[in-house]
Design a protein that fits this description.
The protein is α+β, with helices and mostly antiparallel strands. It has two helices and four strands. The chain has helices at 14-23, 37-49, and strands spanning 2-5, 29-32, 52-57, 60-68. A four-stranded mixed β-sheet has the order 1-2-4-3. Strand 1 (2-5), helix 1 (14-23) and strand 2 form a beta-alpha-beta unit. The longest helix has 13 residues, at 37-49. The radius of gyration is 11 Å and the shape is globular.
Amino acid sequence: MTTIDLHGVRYRDVYGILEKHCTNGETPFVVITGDSGTMKDIVCEVVRQFGLLIEDKLGNTGRVIIYEKNT
């Protein structure tokens, strides 16, 4: 599973970083957001634009898992 670490990434750059992973079908993948609630909100907004779901990784609030909806 791919991991994307957003530590040190500016909020404005998150879309460009996640776009590739959201469009090429390589799901699920993990995004490390750290303790920033703002970063987690931005990641959530971006992935939802691509019709993907986001879930907190159990046991680690600084990571989320991005996956496709089951149809």
